């Protein structure tokens, strides 16, 4: 707490000190800005003119007066189409209609007043704003018209359109449906890492905390008003993004009722036949239906408005594929079809030499493991008995259901106070078939993870702004996002390894340790649970509070504020990431254990022989000591920035952002730190150890932002900008699991031909360390992760020089030089690389350090 107070004091001191400077900003993340000037026919400034803007959809108004040099600035106004009214005694009234204000964009209206009576009105029909005149950001926009009318692939995901924007790689699909139910796409911007993008919905960040290169929630196409994408020279208000800052705005209701309905169908009969598809065979069954609608309008005219959007997805498919399973002769021990001898792994010398081959490659019946025989008897017979490879046709029914609801209510209390609330929810379920069905499992035919997968994602924003005076206003928002995922394999309620197969050390007394163990046979389909990280339960909430203020001061509009953001992970997932088995246990069989030193290499017959003879090459189990892992990450930021109207045609913007990423913690203590000098794991926050592990997490992360926009003429703009952004990657992600509450037991033989044990003997019991002890000496075969000290966060520099010009027929041309440079990218390195275990200091545990990829 002391360090946190020091950091906040430093940030507030800098913020207060900079307020005496002529500082201003760009448009706001949640809103837009409308600026302009008022002049007479001679070009002289007209100060004191009354300016009123009226939202043409809701009737909302804002008023101000032009300053001493004739300029005006409406900051933080809701997006939409406006009418601009300007009045001044001695001049005709000026009205410009259909002025479009978009998200995170500065729109400009420059008015020329004509001499006359105020009762006389000069009306201008506005054209679409085509030039970016007041901001140096490199940005693009996808409007609701483009979102709903441009073709997108199956799934109706707006992120597919991001690939049409300059600097963004083609978005690709990734991860299982359970881990990514929104089917969010993966992309990089301007050559930066995929994890440095921040996608906000109405200002609320929605990282998939465990998979930060995708977002947790994707709204329906029909609910989107606009998508604003910034990829270079970010505004100081925009943090947590080094690649792309994507702001998605959900539609709002207006004084008129509007609605829509849609239905889309795709099926196997509409799809082209693959080039290598067998002649005469039809495409397998596939049906995808997406349907829904929208409705928006007034609850109370000119005051309260609503919008709602629903989208349903129903996907059905005949999932199938060819797999390789042991033939019937193999299962009986008849391996005579092999072109190389099968050796008895329990004969000969310890180094694998001098072994005895089985005569005729026939394994005697009394040598076949009863456990192996019991497992093989559960398998179906090959579909194609004469084939050794791809001899089994597996098939099953795949189902994916998803429902997405977006709702929004806007409330105008008066001309000074406006607020809105958005609530979005996604509900999904997946039924994914496995190769051998629910009884024996095997690999997944479609969907990513076996069995039943289901969950919900919630996304919420509550935002408000208040106009104290025409020259000072504040705005703020609260964001909440939670992603719940459950991936549970079939038969989890049965102790199949322990009670049915009779393998000691498999399964456990807790529910998530039940089900099938994993039997991986090299060259064959895996038997049992295919994935060594099942089952999964994740509850990942994140909260965000942001506050901002705008202050018009002469030719400067000062914007400053701060943000507090938390990310929590609550995971049940016994996952090591290495070769150890799942929570139910696992055995890996390769053909090497039935070969002889100096003899022929192994083939699939050697593998099935190793299985029949109960000679696994490795075995193990991942033991998760607490039922749920917890991490708590916090992010603090303050910023201040300026948009200075130096001349009527020259805008200069500058500011800075301060960020602090403290060391994450567990639910009730700190993380863990490994000391390589003493070969000990230290539990931070236990036994007098500091909660932050004493690690220097860098408190001086300032990110300057500069921008210049020069309107050379009404149709030609030159822009240049520079910005620095800190890599937002959370340390809690790589530090989620660690010793002593994750015990990954992975037993191997002395060499590849040496069996690691047997199914009959089972898996040894792991010794659970005292969770309350502050210091632990880990076993030499345990993998450990720790954070570099001091921890130096990477950062990204971006700069650009851009020319933009109006052409003809409403076209514009733009050319620019855009650059990014990533410094000290974060990564994990193995500090035990090249060491030999069991020899002094080199015998310390496998140790991975998370930090910059360069030497520390």
Describe the SSE topology.
Blueprint: H1 2-18, E1 32-40, E2 50-55, E3 61-65, E4 71-77, E5 80-87, E6 93-101, E7 106-113, E8 121-125, E9 138-143, H2 144-149, E10 198-201, E11 204-205, E12 224-232, E13 245-250, E14 258-267, E15 286-300, E16 304-323, H3 328-331, H4 370-378, E17 392-412, E18 417-432, H5 437-440, E19 441-442, E20 451-469, E21 472-488, H6 496-500, E22 518-521, E23 527-529, E24 536-553, E25 556-572, E26 586-589, H7 604-612, E27 618-624, E28 629-647, E29 650-660, E30 672-675, E31 680-683, E32 701-713, E33 716-726, E34 742-748, E35 775-776, E36 784-787, E37 795-806, E38 812-823, E39 826-830, E40 847-852
Parallel strand pairs: 1-7, 6-8, 10-13, 19-23, 22-26, 36-40
Antiparallel strand pairs: 1-4, 2-3, 2-5, 5-6, 9-12, 10-11, 12-13, 14-15, 15-16, 16-17, 17-18, 18-20, 20-21, 21-24, 22-23, 24-25, 25-28, 26-27, 27-34, 28-29, 29-32, 30-31, 31-35, 32-33, 33-37, 37-38, 39-40
């Amino acid at each position: 707490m002391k360090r946190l107070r020091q950091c906040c004091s430093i940030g507030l001191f800098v913020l207060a000190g900079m307020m005496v400077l002529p500082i201003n900003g760009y448009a706001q993340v949640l809103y837009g800005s409308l600026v302009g000037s008022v002049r007479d026919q001679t070009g002289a400034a007209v100060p004191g003119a009354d300016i009123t803007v009226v939202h043409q959809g809701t009737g909302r108004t804002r008023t101000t007066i032009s300053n001493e040099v004739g300029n005006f600035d409406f900051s933080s106004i809701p997006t939409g189409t406006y009418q601009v009214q300007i009045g001044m005694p001695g001049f005709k009234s000026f009205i410009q209609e259909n002025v479009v204000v978009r998200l995170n964009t500065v729109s400009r209206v420059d008015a020329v007043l004509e001499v006359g009576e105020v009762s006389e009105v000069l009306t201008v029909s506005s054209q679409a704003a085509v030039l970016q005149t007041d901001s140096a950001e490199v940005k693009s926009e996808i409007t609701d018209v483009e979102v709903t009318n441009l073709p997108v692939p199956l799934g109706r995901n707006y992120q597919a359109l991001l690939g049409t924007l300059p600097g963004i790689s083609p978005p690709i699909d990734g991860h299982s449906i359970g881990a990514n139910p929104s089917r969010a796409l993966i992309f990089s911007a301007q050559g930066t890492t995929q994890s440095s993008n921040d996608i906000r919905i109405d200002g609320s960040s929605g990282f998939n905390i465990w998979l930060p290169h995708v977002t947790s929630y994707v709204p329906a196409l029909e609910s989107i008003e606009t998508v604003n994408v910034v990829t270079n020279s970010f505004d100081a208000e925009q943090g947590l993004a080094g690649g792309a800052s994507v702001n998605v705005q959900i539609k709002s209701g207006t004084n008129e009722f509007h609605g829509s309905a849609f239905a889309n169908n795709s099926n196997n009969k509409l799809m082209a036949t693959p080039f290598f598809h067998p002649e005469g065979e039809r495409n397998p069954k596939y049906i995808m239906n997406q349907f829904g609608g929208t409705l928006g309008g007034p609850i109370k005219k000119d005051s309260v408005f609503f919008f709602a959007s629903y989208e349903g997805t129903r996907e059905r498919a005949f999932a199938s594929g060819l797999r390789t399973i042991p033939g019937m002769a193999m299962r009986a021990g008849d391996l005579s079809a092999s072109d190389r001898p099968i050796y008895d792994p329990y004969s000969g010398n310890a180094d694998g030499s001098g072994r005895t081959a089985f005569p005729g490659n026939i394994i005697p019946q009394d040598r076949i493991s009863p456990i192996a025989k019991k497992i093989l008897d559960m398998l179906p017979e090959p579909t194609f008995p004469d084939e050794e490879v791809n001899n089994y046709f597996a098939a099953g029914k795949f189902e994916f259901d998803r429902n997405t609801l977006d709702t929004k209510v806007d409330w105008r209390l008066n001309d000074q106070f406006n607020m809105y609330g958005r609530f979005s929810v996604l509900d999904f379920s997946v039924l994914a078939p496995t190769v051998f069905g629910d009884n024996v499992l095997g690999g997944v035919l479609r969907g990513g993870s076996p069995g039943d997968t289901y969950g919900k994602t919630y996304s919420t924003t509550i935002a408000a702004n208040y106009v104290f005076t025409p020259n000072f206003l504040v705005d703020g928002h609260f964001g909440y996002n939670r992603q719940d995922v459950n991936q549970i394999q079939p038969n989890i309620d049965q102790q199949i390894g322990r009670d049915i197969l009779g393998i000691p050390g498999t399964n456990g007394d807790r529910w998530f340790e039940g089900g099938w163990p994993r039997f991986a046979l090299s060259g064959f389909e895996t038997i049992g649970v295919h994935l060594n990280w099942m089952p999964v339960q994740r509850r990942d909430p994140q909260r965000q509070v942001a506050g901002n203020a705008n202050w018009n001061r002469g030719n400067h509009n000062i914007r400053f504020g701060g943000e507090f953001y938390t990310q929590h992970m609550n995971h049940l997932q016994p996952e090591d990431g290495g070769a150890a088995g799942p929570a139910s246990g696992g055995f890996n069989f390769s053909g090497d254990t039935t070969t002889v030193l100096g003899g022929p290499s192994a083939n699939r017959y050697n593998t099935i022989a190793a299985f029949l003879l109960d000679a696994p090459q490795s075995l193990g189990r991942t033991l998760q000591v607490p039922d749920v892992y917890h991490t708590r990450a916090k992010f603090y930021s303050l910023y201040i920035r300026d948009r200075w109207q130096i001349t009527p045609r020259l805008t200069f913007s500058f500011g800075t952002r301060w960020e602090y990423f403290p060391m994450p913690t567990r639910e009730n203590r700190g993380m863990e730190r490994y000391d390589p000098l003493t070969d000990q794991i230290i539990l931070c926050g236990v036994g007098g150890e500091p909660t932050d592990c004493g690690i220097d997490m860098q408190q001086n992360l300032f990110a300057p932002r500069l921008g210049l926009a020069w309107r050379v003429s009404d149709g030609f703009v030159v822009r240049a900008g520079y910005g620095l952004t800190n890599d937002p990657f959370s340390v809690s992600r790589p530090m989620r699991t660690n010793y002593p509450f994750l015990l990954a037991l992975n037993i191997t033989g002395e060499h590849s031909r040496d069996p690691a044990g047997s199914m009959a003997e089972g898996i040894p019991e792991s010794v659970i360390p005292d969770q309350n002890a502050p210091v632990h000496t880990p076993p030499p075969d345990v993998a450990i992760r720790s954070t570099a000290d001091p921890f130096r966060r990477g950062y990204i520099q971006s700069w650009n020089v851009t020319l933009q010009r109006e052409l003809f027929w409403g076209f514009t041309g733009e050319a620019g030089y855009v650059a990014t440079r990533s410094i000290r990218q974060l990564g994990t390195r193995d500090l035990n690389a090249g060491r030999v275990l069991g020899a002094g200091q080199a015998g310390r545990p496998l140790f991975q350090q998370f930090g910059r990829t360069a030497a520390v």
